[in-house]
Amino acid sequence: MFARSLPSSALAAALALTAVAVTGGAAAAGTVEHRRIVSADPVDTTPHVLDGIVNAIALVGGTVVVGGSFGEVRDAGSARVLERANIFAYDLATGRILPDFAPELDGPVNALAAGAGGTVYAGGAFAETGGAQARRLVRLRISDGAPVPDFRAQAHGGTVTSLVRHGSHLYVGGDFTHVGSVRRTALARLDAATGAVDPAFSVTPGAPRGSRVKVYAMALAAGRLAVDGGFDTLDGLSRPQLGLIDVASSPARVADWRTDAYAPKCKPDFPSYVRGLDFAPDGSYFVVVTSGGAGGADKLCDSAARFEARVRGETDPTWVNHTGGDTLYAVAVTGAAVYVGGHQRWLDNPHGRDSAGPGAVSRPGISAIHPVTGRALRWNPTRDRGIGVKAFLAHRGGLLVGSDTTRLGREYHARIGMFPLP
InterPro entries per the record (predicted)? Predict the structure, then answer.
């Protein structure tokens, strides 16, 4: 049903696009462009998260902000344990934990986005920070961890799972029903300064796959917002689990782009199985990763798939890479590689059924895919599998990785680590 490799004409076009992405040009999306694959040897300076799981990473200037569900952290090479309630920050260059950034969020952080003026947005399942009300969404100062008082957005009726900031706008995804007193089902655009709901953006996911409508992940490039999650429609138009929204238009509208690739069902336990997504730096394509159980080569369960963003009408994936039965949660597209993370054992495994089928390659916990061929690259640092990688963040110096385990690249790196560019 789906192409595992490109036909010759499409291959030539994709090679041309990827050559541009790999060799130069400014990044147009949230992904930073890399000309090379990152090293398989993690840096030694990153701090350690001593319990729980890391769900999200943001970079604010030279400060890395880490969010998740945890309570203790410590600097690399130090025995001193620091209490941090689901969020902390450290200096990217030195790895040292910032002593003055210690917000007390009373629930998990699922999403982070860098803000202007030395701030960060956090979204999740929390209700307050340090006794101050912060229902599912807050903007924090990096300098002291205090909430920015002018930002007053609150999500109700569910949690926040994804954040994307673009200029003066903040896109919020989750399974909430309202932002403030304004009804917004699972998706909203806010004023990034005040948190006020933008009336020019009212695209609504519908037809839930599962108990309720949910936006799982978002990414933005070239005036288009990609969203995936537990829905079958956007503004009543068929968009099973995945769609693009033209956000440069006013009002924003669902793009003339659709795929039925995620219409089929996987295992009953996974009515919605799309997970992370990310645009290429030039915005020409994006990659979606999934859960769902081994579904065979004709389904996109437990897979990574590339989609061209600039086509119109109905489309199929350009390529698909199957794990053979293991979930992928996170993806980062840098131009040089498509990094995928979860609790996978293999890639190149369309015929596996929780087993290594013909041609499968071992890639435990973290791996890289060639952006054009869709085949696994040789890069194979390994990672203790656990639940899986939940967060990637590509930056000019390398690739940050957040998960729930303590060994990355065959070294001790508890739940947060970084592969540098060589």
Answer: Delta_60_rpt, Quinoprotein_ADH-like_sf
